[in-house]
Specification:
alpha/beta, three-stranded mixed sheet, 9 strands, about 35% helix, globular, binds guanosine-5'-triphosphate, binds magnesium ion
């Protein structure tokens, strides 16, 4: 038996939580070195729990990227918050991301309340430190220390990759000895169809303004590789809530839909490492975000 101190394999589940738009998905993508979770500058980008895997000699970390915890305004919102809050109870470690600020609002207070009594170690990551002066960071750390007894506090920049190595190192400090849950080539549990649908939704989020993006969902009708060639045919539908939104998504002479399609195709080709022929449609499903049936149809299924 080997009893050297570096030979113990560690593993566990780490939940990434925080308010919408703080950079949870960006940090997770940065750690695993691949874009699995879509990101955007619009809040409430992530809707489902996305699991990714980071494996190295020291061990294996399974990250759970969650939707931002926020005040829900419809059934989809309730579903998203439920996904995030339920995840807290299933993990070995919680990583809470916040913006670099001394002002701690109701959203953060609510999260701090949720964490109390859970009995899981919590690491606070003060993200986006590339946007503030270095000297200010200590004041943010002090402000956050007052609302929760964190196990670690790490300033970082997910976008620039700053201190991401420290984050990984600190996570391992708190993970128990454990098995390798996934083989080392696995980076995610997301089916490829889901990733493709999410990449299309991301490009739509980036191209569209204001109220339209929140009300969209993407479904894949067809995804099939042609025999004997490296071309994949994909047919997908962007679902929106109103006729007027449909007009915006299609754009003048189809220009907006074309832009979304071109950008999505580029990313999907990178992921699949194959040529992609992408066809997009737009459909209106009034108030789907308040219909449990339609939500289920679009892949937002409540776990028991
Ligand atoms: N300047 C800066 N921007 C960042 C950093 N990390 C993330 N961002 C940006 O912040 C925005 C939100 O990032 P996401 O990763 O989508 O945020 P999220 O927390 O997953 O958001 P939800 O899924 O909506 O909860 C994007 O525009 C990112 O590019 C960072 O370290 N520095
Ligand atoms: Mg996200």
């Amino acid at each position: 038996m080997d009893s050297g101190k570096n030979t113990k394999f560690k593993s566990g589940f780490v939940a990434l939580i925080g308010r919408p738009n703080v950079g949870k998905s960006t940090l997770m993508n940065q750690i695993i070195g691949q874009k699995i979770a879509i990101t955007s500058n619009k809040p409430q980008t992530t809707r489902n729990k996305i699991q990714t895997v980071y494996t190295c000699d020291e061990g294996q970390i399974v990250f759970l990227d969650t939707p931002g915890i926020h005040k829900a305004k419809n059934k989809l919102g309730e579903y998203m918050v439920n996904v995030a809050e339920k995840t807290l109870k299933e993990v070995d470690l919680i990583m809470w991301l916040v913006e670099p600020d001394t002002f701690i609002g109701a959203g953060e207070q609510h999260i701090a309340q949720q964490l109390k009594g859970i009995g899981v170690p919590v690491i606070l990551v003060i993200n986006k430190t590339d946007t503030v002066k270095q000297e200010e960071i200590l004041t943010f750390i002090d402000a956050y220390r007052k609302i929760y007894d964190f196990d670690e506090i790490i300033p970082a920049s997910a976008l620039r990759g700053k201190n991401v190595d420290v984050v990984i190192e600190q996570i391992f400090k708190y993970l128990p000895e454990g098995p390798q849950y996934y083989d080392e080539d696995t980076v995610t549990d997301q089916p490829m169809r889901q990733i493709v649908a999410e990449l299309i939704r991301e490009k739509a989020l980036h191209a569209l303004n204001e109220e339209v993006p929140h009300g969209i969902a993407v479904t894949i009708e067809k995804m099939k590789k042609r025999t004997k060639t490296d071309i994949v045919d994909i047919e997908a539908t962007i679902i929106c809530e109103r006729e007027s939104h449909k007009g915006i998504i299609i754009g003048k002479k189809g220009s907006m839909l074309k832009k979304i399609g071109t950008n999505a195709r580029y990313e999907i080709e990178k992921q699949l490492e194959m040529k992609v022929n992408l066809q997009l449609w737009v459909k209106v499903r009034k108030d789907w975000r308040d219909s449990e049936l339609l939500m289920k149809n679009y892949g937002y299924i409540n776990e028991k």
